[in-house]
Design goal:
- The complex is a heterodimer of chains A (about 400) and B (about 150).
- Chain A is α/β, with parallel strands linked by helices.
- Chain A has helices spanning about 35-50, 60-80, 95-105, 125-135, 155-160, 185-195, 215, 240-245, 280-295, 300-315, 345-355, 365-370, 390-405, and strands at about 15-20, 20, 25, 85-90, 115, 140, 145, 150-155, 165-170, 195-200, 220-225, 235-240, 255-260, 265, 325, 335-340, 355-360, 360, 380.
- In chain A, helix 1 packs antiparallel against helix 9.
- The radius of gyration of chain A is 22 Å and the shape is globular.
- In chain B, helix 4 packs antiparallel against helix 5 (about 125-140).
- Chain B is globular.
- The N and C termini of chain B lie far apart (about 35 Å).
- Classes of the chains: A alpha/beta (about 400), B alpha+beta (about 150).
- At the A-B interface, helix 11 and helix 13 of A face helix 1 and helix 3 of B.
Chain lengths: ~400, ~150
């Protein structure tokens, strides 16, 4: 397992006690903690450069504009985008997916098909339901295989589903409940063969390993800063230039217009066209600092660390009596989701909290999948660069105590 | 285990969680209401047979944490035979118990939920079944066989 001896020292928040126990933060799938370098970038910006961008001619405004645009270039490099203009700053993954779904809906007609999958987070599901309703297009789902979704996407069914009527194929890169990485490059290639636009939800994957949008071959890719050590309130919609230029703007107002008269307005080109109003400037700068931080750790090494911890957690949890683990037994990425028939996830999470553990309990914004699997709610432990094998021992011991309490 | 946690998961609550009372659909019900907690996915349906203004019989069904299931189970034992006004008064007292931790002397088993007040996130769990019951009392008479809209 790759380890970075000083990595925990980079995260001030980890060094505290919760209910008298050292904090064991296993909820990075919900949001990641922030290294000092990211916090310092935010403080530096607010203490030295804070100003509005693309508007002022004074020194601070120019510094802020330069820093904001440098952040865009840094994110483009992080994604291996062809150019910075392919990076649109948004409020987060949900905002990005809404922007692209509403934009693409304008070109959809009855008879067209939007294809997504049964494992999507609500943020990559509800916007497409809305797009289908608005346009008259049909929404279809690629099935998930296995009683515990251990088989991943039904790739044989995908061949039948990917007809020329499919105009959009939207799917998650890494499932937030199954810990399963979809073969995104292959899915994009197959979608491209029928002329479908591809939209990848990379919220869980982007900070957890190498990611190259050109190698993936996707048209759009969405993610949030806060799940990759960046601030909340900043996200990205990557769009291949040719696609982005054809996408209509969503929010309109200042900053996105080339010229305005009383009769109407003309838009700026991408990315400004999608960034009406004052953008999350500090967020973008913090996100760029997060890119620096993760690249310095090494993204291959982060992916290995994630996989090693998830594998260890799966193997340590599997022997617990009555446990049901979701997703594949091997090859999983940085999280495990599990349920007990007789002890509810919220009781598990409340007991774990008393032991200083931060876990997630609930449907994980995955209600349709949970329902399909016959589950109302599960517990999730998710891992990141600062987690250790010893923390998995704490998790297992806590679960054993909880089960003993409820089962007597 | 901390004192707060022991207080939250009282023996009465664990008992109702392990062996829920009046669980399942009530075939003779003339009122039904469904409650859910969208933030956690807990669900609770309450079935009532109202005889005039009096709850002649009631049951609950659903899924959720020990607190929500035990609370709904215990509630069914408390509401049987009560009028709408009495049920509302009992809920008011229960709500005070779970939000303040203070227990009036005359309330028996409901006092087991006093520990909830130190876990504000769990107050909704404890009140879910009660909300469904009060909605059922207020709602139109509906055949018990009607499929629940969010199932």
């Amino acid at each position: 397992m790759p380890t970075w001896p000083d990595v925990r020292a980079d995260f001030p928040i980890l060094h505290q006690r919760v209910h008298g126990h050292p904090l064991v933060y296993l909820d990075s799938g919900a949001t990641a903690q922030k290294p000092r370098a990211v916090i310092a970038a935010l403080v530096r910006y607010y203490e030295q450069d804070n100003s509005n961008v693309h508007r002022g001619l004074h020194a601070l405004s120019m510094r802020a504009t330069d820093a904001y645009e440098a952040a865009r270039a840094r994110v483009a490099q992080f994604l291996h985008a062809a150019e910075p203009a392919e990076v649109v700053f948004t409020r987060g993954t949900t905002d990005s997916l809404n922007l692209v779904a509403r934009g693409l809906a304008a070109d959809l007609r009855p008879g067209d098909v939007i294809l997504t999958t049964e494992m999507e987070h609500h943020s990559n599901l509800v916007p497409w339901q809305q797009a289908a309703q608005a346009s008259g297009a049909t929404l279809r789902y690629v099935p998930v295989l296995g009683a515990n979704a251990e088989g991943g996407l039904d790739l044989a069914a995908l061949d039948q589903l990917l007809t020329p009527q499919v105009k959009v194929f939207a799917f998650t890169h890494l499932s937030n409940t199954l810990g399963l990485l979809n073969p995104a490059a292959d899915l994009c290639r197959r979608a491209r063969a029928v002329g479908a636009v591809t939209v990848v939800d990379a919220a869980q994957s982007v900070g957890h390993g190498p990611l190259d949008v050109q190698a993936l071959g996707c048209d759009f890719l969405a993610f949030s800063g806060h799940k990759m050590c960046g601030p909340t309130g900043i996200g990205v919609l990557y769009g291949r230039r040719a696609r982005l230029d054809r996408l209509p703007p969503d929010a309109t107002g200042g900053g996105m217009v080339a010229s305005v008269d009383y009769e109407g307005a003309r838009w700026k080109p991408a990315p400004e066209r999608f960034e009406a109003g004052t953008p999350p400037i500090a967020g973008a700068i913090g996100l760029a600092a997060a890119c620096d931080y993760l690249d310095a750790l090494g993204r291959e090494a982060i992916a290995r660390h994630d996989q090693d911890l998830a594998q260890l957690a799966y193997e340590r949890l599997a022997p617990l009596p009555g446990i049901r683990l979701l997703g594949p037994a091997t090859g999983r990425r940085g999280l495990v989701c599990f349920a007990f028939a007789d002890v509810h996830a919220h009781d598990v999470v409340t007991f774990a909290d008393e032991d200083g553990l931060a876990l997630r309990g609930g449907h994980h914004c995955n209600q349709p999948l949970m329902r399909k699997l016959g589950l109302a709610s599960t517990t999730r432990a998710s891992f990141y660069v600062y987690n250790t094998a010893a923390e998995i021992d704490v998790l297992v011991a806590s679960l054993q105590r909880t089960l003993k309490f409820f089962r007597g | 285990m901390s004192a707060d946690l022991t207080e939250l998961y009282q023996q009465v609550i664990l008992d109702h969680n392990r062996r829920p009372r009046n669980r399942g659909r009530l075939p003779t019900a003339n009122r039904v209401a469904h409650g859910d907690n969208p933030s956690c996915g807990d669900q609770c349906s309450v079935y009532l047979r109202l005889d005039g203004d009096r709850i002649a019989e009631l049951s609950f069904d659903g899924s959720g944490c020990a607190i929500s299931q035990a609370s709904a189970s215990l509630m069914t034992t408390q509401l049987k035979g009560k009028t709408t006004a009495q049920a509302e008064e009992l809920y008011r007292q229960f709500h005070d118990i779970v939000t303040t931790g203070q227990t009036p002397g005359e309330i028996s088993d409901l006092a087991a939920f006093a520990g909830v007040h130190t876990f504000p996130a769990r107050i909704k769990c404890a009140t879910l079944g009660w909300h469904a019951a009060l909605n059922a009392l207020k709602g139109d008479a509906a055949p018990a066989t009607t499929e629940l809209p969010s199932d």
